[in-house]
Amino acid sequence: MKPVRYSYGITGALLAGGAAISLITGYPAGAQVAQNDASKMTHVVPEAGAPASFADLTEQLQPAVVNISTKQRITVETNPFSGTPFAELFGNRGGQPTTREAQSLGSGFIVSADGYVVTNNHVISPEGRNAELEEVTVTMPDGTEYPADVVGKDAASDLAVLKIQRDKAFPFVKFGDSSAARVGDWVIAIGNPFGLGGTVTSGIVSAVYRNTGGGAYDRYIQTDASINRGNSGGPLFDMQGNVIGINNAIFSPSGGSVGIGFAIPAETAAPIVDKLIAGEDILRGYLGVRINPVTEDFAEALGIPEKRGEFIQMVQPGEAADKAGLKSGDVVLKVDGKDVTPDQTLSFIVANIEPGTTVPLEILRDGDRRTVNVTVGRRPSEEELAAQSFDTDDESTPSDPAPSDSNGLVGESLGVQVIPMTATIARQLGVGTDTQGVVVTAVDPNADAARKGVRRGTIILRANNTDIASIADLERVISSAKSSNREAILLRMKPRGAPAISMPVRIR
């Protein structure tokens, strides 16, 4: 089970040794068996109100929901210095690497008579570079097992497609329009929680398009239908037998269901699944920016009335945003006419735009709205994006060349002490000796600055779009913000060993 962490401390987890996915193909979907004539199907529940029973619907759907298990081989290093600079120096003192076997378990469902099966990528993808997938087995509700081939997988959306074969047609289900799902709609989930095959639970749609972290595909249908470990990859059905989501994750302090489960919407997954089946590359749009949502603090610091849009922290040189002239400090409000909101993030909108397409972006720059046309680039692979990440080293900090005088306005207002930048400090911090700014030497742990990640050694470069070359510059910005009755200021900062970021810090 892969953990998903959230700022408020509740553990979220992908469901079990397997996970979930969803698809929508736009077909007039309904649960079907390959040999059945769809025209003979009848409604098995009332058109409105609570169903008298889920039994008839479950009987039709359950044959297409399967158990997925994998065997993996993991190489275990016995050299205690493996992966360190001492590995070659001390040689193989711990002996040769050994291998062990691991297993995973999840759910899936058949989407065609010829045996294509959909599940989550993490159900069938071993974690760690020393793990290798050896085999995948699909088990039908009647206990029949089939070896499965991996047709395609996509880490970004956590989707995978498998293929099983037999002489006669498989029962299968089709996919519906998840965009039509409404809060309060009845749904049922079928899967293999804790290895208990063919488990059926019911509930309602608790929320549509719940965003839990801001990723390109971080939009879920929330449900209170019981979902537990092993449900990953299993379908979430509406009352007409359409797959509208794939059970994928839960919020839980204990690891078990507490009535907050998430399913990937069918409309997100269907195009990806279709391409995986066809053997086509998954192409996604990309701007090349680091962003933050415009929270209440950002809005206060920027002096804008609405908490809409996303704030650009950094523009990657040579990528689409850079070529279009976007800058750090810009706030993106709309993309191709679509509002950027917590439920429809910039990452989600752009990822679903064909690379090479030119679209207008409505942005806010220095308080003025303007439109910038951007030719969307191609999103790098997850491995390439991971290689672009960085770690901040806060352990080594600069020495103070002189006492700080920032116990006055800066200390009182922001809860930090700062000193002027010098060539010596610049070299200690690993930046150019011509870098201008002030350097943080201490932070009040109870101040908002501490909560926003300001640490000793952080360089404050700008404040409210004003270059900071001295403590007096920073004090003037603080005074101006207070006179305008602002409760926060926007600081452009460079943490030790990391790119510059902008962060709203509340004034005390």
TrEMBL record:
One of its GO terms (molecular function) is serine-type endopeptidase activity. Substrate binds at residues 122, 158, 230-232. InterPro entries: PDZ (IPR001478), PDZ_sf (IPR036034), Pept_S1C_Do (IPR011782), Peptidase_S1_PA (IPR009003), Peptidase_S1C (IPR001940). Keywords: Hydrolase, Periplasm, Protease, Repeat, Serine protease, Signal, Stress response. The keyword Repeat applies. It is found in: Periplasm. This is Probable periplasmic serine endoprotease DegP-like. It comes from Croceibacterium atlanticum. The lineage of its organism: Bacteria, Pseudomonadati, Pseudomonadota, Alphaproteobacteria, Sphingomonadales.
